[in-house]
Write a structure and sequence with these properties.
By secondary structure, the protein is an alpha+beta fold. It has helices spanning 6-12, 67-80, 92-101, 132-137, 158-171, 214-226, 271-289; strands spanning 27-34, 37-40, 53-60, 63-64, 108-114, 120-125, 139-145, 175-179, 184-188, 192-196, 202-204, 230-232, 235-236, 245-250, 254-261, 264-265. Strands 7, 8, 9, 10, 11, 12, 13, 14, 15 and 16 form a ten-stranded mixed sheet that branches. A six-stranded antiparallel sheet has the order 2-1-6-5-3-4.
């Protein structure tokens, strides 16, 4: 079989692999991108190791959302860790379009992974999106004393993610909010975090303290467009209850209200929050129509 033969891969009809029940991951579906070629998913090498440079983008209605933003951040991360990108990555967006054409998975996350052994892979991964009830009623979060080793780079840190997952399993929390050595909330274990004050201003960490999420980028742009003031400062964990509302964001969850953080309760129907959520859905709808 020719490595780039899309028809041969699709005709083979490879079944999705079963989801693992641990923090380790694997690609699902018929095929993947591997080192510039479209290959059967069975040819994938292991993903989910510590210190992998990765990126996650969301495919909705068969369209990769904000794909240029995701690829730009991935390239920046690779450059920051001193990895020269092969020439084929110039055509990554086209390969992603081919990968989508191989599947009947209109709504799913796609993960780009650069492993320590030099492999660059991209494929669909099993994803659980927040339910409609979560968007309506908010989710629970817990505080976790932890910091990312490289907060501005999208690098997988298995130890921190494992600690956060254990906390979530034990407490039933949807997300763990990281608290640094100064007692300030920086971000979530897999999200960016925001707090809304009584005056409607949004408080979130500065760009130099957290990973610049793609959703975060567009949330901040929407705030500027619709006149919501943003204050760039990490909220002191012990003063979280001073704020009236809170939410988290990421590619899979977009904007997700938080109803409780370590016993402190928040208004999930806050006008500023709901206005921002509506603006984001309008932006995504435009992306899908493009």
């Amino acid at each position: 079989m020719a490595k780039n033969s899309l028809s041969a891969i699709v005709e083979k009809g490879l079944r999705p692999k079963k989801t693992r029940l641990s923090l380790s991951m694997e690609f699902i579906g018929n095929c993947i991108i591997r080192n510039g070629s479209i290959e059967p998913a069975d040819e994938q090498s292991h993903i989910g190791d510590d210190n992998e440079v990765y990126e996650v983008l969301r495919v909705e209605a068969g369209k990769p959302l904000f794909v240029e933003d995701h690829l730009a951040r991935w390239r920046d991360s690779m450059k920051a860790v001193g990895v020269a990108l092969p020439k084929w990555t110039d055509s990554f967006e086209t390969l992603i379009t081919w990968l989508i054409a191989c599947h009947t998975l209109p709504n799913c996350d796609m993960r780009i992974v650069a492993s320590a052994d030099g492999d660059i892979q991209c494929g669909y991964v099993q994803t659980e999106y927040p339910s409609l009830q979560m968007y309506a009623e908010g989710v629970k979060a817990e505080l976790l004393n932890a910091e990312r080793e490289t907060p501005r780079l999208k690098i997988y840190h298995a130890g921190m993610r494992s600690e956060a997952q254990n906390q979530q399993d034990e407490t039933g929390a949807y997300e763990s909010l990281l608290v640094n050595a100064e007692g300030r909330i920086t971000e979530g274990s897999r999200s960016n975090a925001y707090f809304i004050a009584h005056d409607g201003t949004i408080h979130t960490a500065g760009d130099d303290e957290v990973l610049g999420g793609i959703m975060r980028k567009h949330i901040l742009a929407l705030c500027a467009q619709i006149g919501i003031k943003v204050v760039f400062e990490c909220v002191v964990a012990e003063r979280r209850a001073d704020f009236v509302s809170a939410f988290i964001s990421s590619t899979p969850m977009r904007i997700l209200p938080v109803r409780e953080i370590d016993g402190a309760l928040f208004d999930v129907q806050n006008q500023t929050l709901r206005r921002l959520m509506s603006a984001m859905e309008e932006l995504v709808a435009k992306q899908i129509k493009c």
